[in-house]
Design brief:
mainly alpha; two-stranded antiparallel sheet
């Protein structure tokens, strides 16, 4: 029995995107939380918690995009054609945010507020655009003769816009729980309060999307609610509810530090799993599977050699950077 190269590459891309969502999600979330923090010294601490790692986090986005381009060129071309506008806005937001991050530390105190607003705006645009891309992907793409045949604004639907808002809540929750883990004193207490509210907001958004998706997509509804699938998929919503309950309890504890962030990661992983269950095995919903979209085996095999070399290096670098800069960040610590 031969090696299923398309499946291996799908796993690599899914893993890369999940790593990006987890790692860049919390620093985008910190940008979204900026307007809620009034003290400049507290905003300095927020920035210093992510200063050593934020640019390395985006390595996984590059890895996922490059893997999609090489291993599934049909999916890459269709997705880029269909979602060109939100993807371009996402990149503009990430670039603008990176510039604001660096210039904020070099600006005079009286001008620092400009870059604070820019950092928030870049985080907002990037996060909302990613959510819109997710919603457009779930809605599916019109494909004819292996080319995208839809309109340039087909992604602009109420569902995709709502997904944009949903991802903002998810990233803000990640950011707040990251700050619970990395800070102390007043900022720690403020983030606990916001994390509690964001947990309820995210749970409500997940419930709405879970109802909206099968109503809008009959194929997904059939997959979810037909027997015996319903028994296999039932653990996902149950685990989401249990995790949200445990997260609320962890946030309310006086000595909480790491557990809210870890539970938020698991909550987002459950949402990610639900997406995978809904569209499997389609890489271009609703009809083209990842096997149909795959590049020739020779290309995938050649790329796999390089991927098996570079992915462990990225993992080691990521682990080491987080290990070196572990622990709490205080007000008297500067930009790394």
């Amino acid at each position: 029995m031969g090696i299923d190269l398309p499946l291996i590459w799908l796993i690599i891309i899914i893993f890369s995107i999940m790593m990006y969502v987890v790692m860049d999600g919390f620093d985008l979330g910190i940008g979204l939380l900026f307007p809620l923090v009034k003290e400049r010294r507290d905003r300095d601490v927020m920035m210093n918690t992510i200063a050593p790692v934020w640019d390395g986090n985006e390595t996984w986005l590059v890895m996922g995009g490059a893997g999609l381009f090489g291993a599934f060129p049909l999916a890459y071309s269709v997705i880029l054609d269909a979602l060109a506008i939100p993807l371009t806005l996402m990149l503009i937001g990430l670039i603008f945010r990176g510039v604001a991050f660096e210039f904020r530390f070099k600006a005079a105190p009286e001008r620092q507020h400009i870059w604070d607003k820019s950092f928030f705006a870049g985080s907002l645009v990037a996060t909302f655009s990613q959510g819109v891309v997710l919603g457009g992907f779930i809605n599916g793409f019109a494909v004819q003769a292996r080319h995208y045949s839809g309109g340039v604004l087909d992604w602009l639907t109420p569902f995709s816009l709502f997904c944009g808002l949903g991802l903002m809540a998810a990233y803000a929750l990640l950011g707040s729980t990251w700050l619970i883990m990395k800070t102390g004193d007043r900022l720690h207490s403020d983030m606990k309060r916001w994390a509690g509210l964001l947990t309820l907001a995210l749970l409500a958004i997940i419930a709405i999307i879970s109802v909206w998706t099968p109503l809008a997509q009959p194929a997904i509804a059939h997959r979810w609610f037909s027997l015996p699938n319903v028994f296999f998929f039932l653990p996902v919503p149950v685990l989401v509810l249990l995790t949200a309950w445990a997260l609320r309890r962890a946030i309310m504890r006086d000595d909480t530090h790491y557990s809210p962030f870890l539970l938020t990661l698991f909550l987002i992983f459950m949402g990610y799993s639900g997406l995978g269950i809904s569209i499997w095995p389609h890489l271009i919903p609703p009809s083209i599977t990842f096997w149909d979209a795959a590049a020739p085996p020779q290309s995938q095999g050649f790329m796999l050699v390089g991927a098996l070399f570079i992915i462990p290096l990225i993992l080691v670098y990521t682990f080491w950077s987080y290990y070196v800069f572990r622990g709490k960040v205080s007000h008297n610590e500067g930009y790394h």
